[in-house]
Amino acid sequence: QVQLVESGGGLVQAGDSLRLSCAASTLSFSYYAMGWFRQPTGQEREFVAAISRSGASTVYTESVKGRFTISRDNAKNTVYLQMNSLKPEDTAVYYCAARFTLSRDSHAGTEGNDYNYWGQGTQVTVSS
């Protein structure tokens, strides 16, 4: 069982930056591909970004390309989402997700069903 705890959310103004962190309670974090999803109020959950076990492969949804960066520190059992140039439409609860995989250099996927473990979420609110 893997527990994921997100942090770093908050209320910011448009154009500001935030860095989300997701700490995993497992000694085998390096065997998990990781992803970030978000769910705006009243809407369905959507994919944001994913990263492979090694960090060599990343993928982003189109709307965040060039603004968000996903990264990981396997020594700290943590995955990050650096969010720059935030927009009001980025407002959502952000969730991190994990999938155990033997593939070192492939990300887990862009669908929620691709992941086995989820955090409780952290709220990001961007005011205009």
Rounded radius of gyration (Å): 13 Å
> Which sheet architecture does the biggest sheet show?
7 strands, mixed
Overall residue-averaged pLDDT value: 96
Shape: globular
Which ranges are low-confidence, i.e. pLDDT below 50, for 5 or more consecutive residues?
A: none
Report the structural category.
Answer: mainly beta
**Count of separate DSSP helical elements:** 0
Give the proportion of residues in helices.
under 10%
Strand content: over 45%
Number of strands: 11
The separation of the N and C termini measures 40 Å
Q: What's the SSE pattern?
A: EEEEEEEEEEE
Structural write-up:
β5 (46-51) and β6 form a beta hairpin. With 128 residues, the chain is mainly β. 34% of the residues are buried. The chain is globular and about 45 Å long. Strands 2, 4, 5, 6, 9, 10 and 11 form a seven-stranded mixed sheet that branches. A four-stranded antiparallel sheet has the order 1-3-8-7, with no helix packed on it. It has strands at residues 4-7, 10-13, 18-24, 32-39, 46-51, 58-60, 68-73, 78-83, 92-100, 117-118, 122-127. The protein contains no helices and eleven strands.
